[in-house]
Design a protein that fits this description.
Structural class: mainly alpha
Distance between the termini: 20 Å
Number of strands: 0
Keywords: Membrane, Signal, Transmembrane, Transmembrane helix
Strand content: under 5%
Shape: elongated
Pfam families: DUF423 (PF04241)
Helix content: over 70%
Length: 123
C-alpha cells in the first residue's frame, strides 16, 4: 500500500468510525435494554474518528502516523465491534477481543507519543 493509499484509507476509516459512532449513540438512546454497551462502542468510535483525521493531517511529517493509524483502527474495530456484537447478539466477537482491542488502541496512542520524539520527516 502506498503512502497516498494508506492515508486515504485512514481518512475513509475515520469517516466510517464517525458514522458508526453516531449510529451506535442513536441505538443506545432509542433501543430497549441496557444502553451501556452501545454507549461504549459509540464513545470509542467518536473518540478515534477525529484522532485518525488528525493523523491524516500529520501524515507527511509524523513518522509513526501509519503505525498509529493501523493500531487505532484495529483496536477500535475489535473493541467497539465486540461491544456492539454483545449488545446485538448477546455474545462477543471472540474471547478477549475487547481487551485486545483496548491494548491495540493504547499502543496506537503510544505510537503517536513516540512519533513526537522522533525527528519529523522532511516535507
Amino acid at each position: 500500500m502506498t503512502v497516498s493509499t494508506a492515508r486515504r484509507a485512514t481518512l475513509l476509516v475515520a469517516g466510517l468510525f464517525g458514522f458508526a459512532g453516531v449510529v451506535s449513540a442513536a441505538i443506545a438512546s432509542h433501543a430497549s435494554g441496557d444502553p451501556r454497551l452501545m454507549s461504549g462502542a459509540s464513545a470509542m468510535c467518536l473518540a478515534h474518528a477525529p484522532a485518525l483525521l488528525a493523523l491524516c493531517a500529520a501524515w507527511p511529517s509524523l513518522r509513526t502516523a501509519p503505525l498509529a493509524a493501523a493500531l487505532l483502527t484495529a483496536g477500535t474495530l475489535l473493541f467497539a465491534g465486540d461491544l456492539a456484537m454483545r449488545h446485538a447478539l448477546g455474545h462477543g466477537l471472540f474471547p478477549m477481543s475487547a481487551p485486545t482491542g483496548g491494548t491495540l488502541m493504547m499502543a496506537g496512542w503510544l505510537a503517536i507519543a513516540l512519533g513526537s520524539l522522533l525527528k519529523p520527516r522532511d516535507i
